[in-house]
C-alpha cells in the first residue's frame, strides 16, 4: 500500500490518493466489481482536479471580495434589467467575446455585480482577472522602465474575462490613455471585458483628454456590449443615520 500511495503521489493523482483507503473499504462493503471500483477512483480524481483548478483560477483572479448574485438586492436598484443581467450571468457573453458595462454613481452596486459575474465565470472554467483601471495603468507604465511591458500586457490580455473597475474616478494622463487603448484594441473581439464607471459615455472624453482616442476606445467597447445604467441610490448610504437619529 505504501508503494502504491507513493506512486499515486508521483503521478500527481491527488484525488485517488486522498480517497483510496475510504474507497477500498466502500468497495469491500458493497462488493463492487473492479470496473465499479475504478470508476469511483476516476470520479474522485476528476472532482479533485476540478476543485484544484477552480481554486487556482480564483486565486489568480484577484477578486477584492466575494460578492454573490444572491446577495445583491435588485429591489433596491429597480433600474437594473434583471432579465438582462440573468442573461449575462449565463456567461454566454464570454463565449461570444462580448463586453458588459455598468454605469452608475459610487455605491450603486457596479463592483458587486461585476464580481458576481466574475465568480460565475470562474465556476464555468473561464480565466478571470479583476483590477482597478488605475492599478492596471500604473503597472503597465511601470513595466516600461524594466522592459517588461509586453509581458505585463500579456498578463491583462490572457484572461477570457478582464474586469476593469472604477473607470472615470480620475482623469488619465495621455500615456495612460494610450495604454488603455492598447488593452481595449488588443482584446477587441478576442476576449471579454467588464467595465464599471461613474461616467456616462458622453463624458468619456473628459476621462481620456483626447476626444479621438476616447471615441476609438468607446467604439470598440460598445460595439459588442450589454450596458447597465444604474440610476438608483447608494447602498453605502442606505443605512446611514442623520445626527438626529433618522435614516
Q: Which residues form runs of ≥5 with pLDDT under 50?
A: none
End-to-end separation in angstroms reads: 66 Å
Biggest sheet strand line-up: 2-3-4-1-5
What's the tally of helices? 11
The geometry reads as: elongated
- Give the number of domains: 2
**Rg, Å, rounded:** 23 Å
Give, in order, the helices and strands.
HHHHHEHEHHEHEHHE
Portion in helices? 40-55%
Description:
This protein is an alpha/beta fold. It has two domains: 2-59, no CATH class; 82-230, P-loop containing nucleotide triphosphate hydrolases (Rossmann fold). 53% of the residues lie in helices and 12% in strands. It is built from eleven helices and five strands. Strands 2-3-4-1-5 form a five-stranded parallel beta sheet. Helix 9 links the parallel strand 3 and strand 4 (192-197). The chain is elongated. The N and C termini lie far apart (66 Å).
Strand and helix map with partners:
Elements: H1 2-10, H2 14-30, H3 34-61, H4 82-89, H5 92-95, E1 99-104, H6 110-123, E2 128-132, H7 133-143, H8 149-157, E3 161-167, H9 174-187, E4 192-197, H10 204-208, H11 211-222, E5 225-230
Parallel strand pairs: 1-4, 1-5, 2-3, 3-4
Helix pairs in contact: 2-3, 3-6, 7-8, 7-9, 9-11
Amino acid at each position: 500500500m505504501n508503494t502504491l500511495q507513493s506512486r499515486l503521489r508521483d503521478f500527481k493523482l491527488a484525488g485517488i490518493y486522498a480517497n483510496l483507503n475510504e474507497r477500498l473499504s466502500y468497495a469491500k462493503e458493497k462488493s463492487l466489481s473492479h470496473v465499479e471500483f475504478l470508476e469511483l477512483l476516476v470520479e474522485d480524481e476528476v472532482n479533485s482536479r476540478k476543485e484544484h483548478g477552480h481554486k487556482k483560477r480564483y486565486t489568480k483572479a484577484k477578486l477584492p471580495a466575494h460578492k454573490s448574485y444572491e446577495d445583491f438586492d435588485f429591489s433596491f436598484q429597480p433600474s437594473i434589467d434583471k432579465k438582462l443581467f440573468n442573461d449575462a450571468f449565463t456567461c454566454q457573453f464570454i463565449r461570444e467575446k462580448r463586453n458588459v458595462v455598468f454605469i452608475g454613481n459610487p455605491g450603486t452596486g457596479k463592483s458587486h455585480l461585476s464580481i458576481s459575474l466574475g465568480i460565475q465565470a470562474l465556476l464555468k472554467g473561464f480565466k478571470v482577472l479583476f483590477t482597478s483601471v488605475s492599478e492596471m495603468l500604473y503597472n503597465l507604465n511601470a513595466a516600461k522602465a524594466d522592459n517588461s511591458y509586453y509581458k505585463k500586457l500579456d498578463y491583462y490580455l490572457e484572461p477570457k474575462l478582464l474586469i476593469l473597475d472604477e473607470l472615470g474616478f480620475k482623469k488619465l494622463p495621455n500615456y495612460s490613455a494610450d495604454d488603455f487603448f492598447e488593452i481595449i484594441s488588443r482584446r477587441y473581439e478576442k476576449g471579454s471585458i467588464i467595465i464599471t464607471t461613474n461616467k456616462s459615455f458622453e463624458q468619456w472624453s473628459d476621462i481620456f483628454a483626447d476626444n479621438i482616442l476616447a471615441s476609438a476606445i468607446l467604439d470598440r467597447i460598445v460595439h459588442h456590449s450589454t450596458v447597465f445604467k444604474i440610476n438608483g441610490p447608494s447602498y453605502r448610504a442606505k443605512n446611514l443615520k442623520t445626527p438626529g437619529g433618522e435614516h
